Amino acid sequence: MEEEQVEERIGSGPKHWSSGWLGALLAFVIPLLVIAYFLGIFAKPTVTVTETGPYRYVYLPFQGGYYQVDERLQDLEKSLKLARVPHGGPMGVFYDDPRQVPERARRARAGYFLAPDTPVPADMKVDNIPRRRVVMVQVKAHPAIAPIKAYRALDQWLQANGLPLAWPTLERYGPNKVVTVEMGL
Fold first, then answer.
1. Which of 32, 53, 58, 163 has its CA at 20 to 30 Å from residue 15's CA atom?
2. Is 112 helix (H, G, I), strand (E, B) or coil?
3. 3-state helix, strand, coil in the chain (%, to 5)
4. Strand pairing of 132-140 and 107-114?
5. pLDDT tens-digit series, residues 138-182
């Protein structure tokens, strides 16, 4: 009889919060949602038609997977610092639609904005983008996620307005994880 009373007391106590579905929710789902929020998964891109530019920039040409452009930006930034060239934020010019051009053949320029009168060593490539009318998409998200969200929003806007996606596009990587994609109209 004493054994039966002990068994009843062990099995009949209150359950700890971490047992069952509530514990799984708190331990796994909520942290994933918090991470997704900070990465910008839920960020909503804004699409506007505006005029931008002119821009002057120094760049390194690139061919290959667009995800590798960041490596070229790092290489260029080191060169700019060694040459003591004052520069603005990072940017990229992308020439090929990744849905139509094989990864190894995709062309881009990885660069940094320059003031109009900034002197640049002769061995560095410089180009200009004139003032122009663009569709501009901005999104605040992690740099690995932001372009995906921006191009998806751009594509939806273009479809809704009966316009094709036109290359090249310009990506500006601003402070606070704001990525801007510009497509000329």
1. 32
2. strand
3. 35, 30, 35
4. unpaired
5. 999 887 788 889 999 999 999 999 999 999 999 999 888 899 999
